[in-house]
């Protein structure tokens, strides 16, 4: 990969985009939305090749679910794109302004970052999401997807580029896809060392990918986190509500980063709640239970602990803080909300946490003390998503504390500059 040639082209494209108004950018994005709709058959065909290759490689079905595209998911991609089109263009927004005593006018306004790179795994919908947010905010983007989704990504980018080229004022050079070769990550190293050529890099994927980018990048990084999310069942919880939320947060899509990986249970209600939870999961989830919860299961549902296909097994230390991305979770019992908070803060990835409780004091304590980008009360962690937050598409969930945190929409890809107007003032 000729990183200098690619980024020079992207830089030129970003400079063109920086001069465009919202109507011009929206016209181009509308053309992309229509092209995705018209070309859905070729996109699904390309995706089927990726899915077949993934199955041959023995990739789990929960991960394949992240890779899969069908008509419904393409409808969702187009819907997210149209939401981005409908949002206010952040470029040029005045944050604040004032006049100095010597008569100069100072205005702080939003401007694009410039050239953005995203390194991501599996999910081809990210290709459209990342492009649309970058384009709308006046940035060009370099996409480095995984080898498992390369055929899908290549077809999607082809459709996007052709749509931009056919639109008056469209800038097809604003998106580039890295040609991915299996087991070759030299291109990633080039991206991470492209100082002065790439303005920011975003990793989106599993723990290993994120750590590699954060630890080795010389380019500024907006860190997204793997999703070790917890659900705490407080002593005052509505247990039926807790079961419904646990089922949704674990089972609806277990391979996504906002699915829960650990259920923390107050010991005062554990004997009542855990049998209800086992009945709710109905053998669909393997539970790695700590010593206290395992003893409760042993007494209440001994049949679930027997045989090679047992759905309740003793937890090991490695289970706590583990991201299963599958129909598995761990169970941890605690004796107080303070212990729950300490446990969660020491085992989470700063992504999303939830408490089920009828105590206002406990819910406010939980939201105040939990260190995460999103902290829920009596709701599923599955809502941590740009679309659910009203952003349309998202770049990922930022788990860091500087510049951006939580679901990342359009404004994350902007910075600010100060515009100062004078009349001959000197200092």
The helix-strand sequence is HHHHHEEEHEHEHEHEHEHEHEEHEHEEEE
> What's the rounded overall pLDDT mean?
93
Q: Overall 3D geometry? A: globular
The level of helicity is 40-55%
SS-based class: alpha/beta
Overview of this protein structure:
Helix 10 (239-251) links the parallel strand 7 and strand 8. The chain is globular, with a radius of gyration of 24 Å. Helix 2 packs across helix 7 (150-165), helix 3 packs antiparallel against helix 7 and helix 5 (71-86) packs parallel to helix 6. Helix content is 41%, strand content 19%. The model has no long low-confidence stretch (mean pLDDT 93). The strands form 4 sheets. A 7-stranded parallel β-sheet has the order 10-9-11-8-7-12-13, with helices on both faces. The protein has a 4-stranded parallel β-sheet with strand order 5-4-3-6, sandwiched between helices. It starts with a helix and ends in a 6-residue tail after the last strand. With 427 residues, it is of the alpha/beta class. The longest helix is centred in the N-terminal third of the chain and has 17 residues, at 22-38.
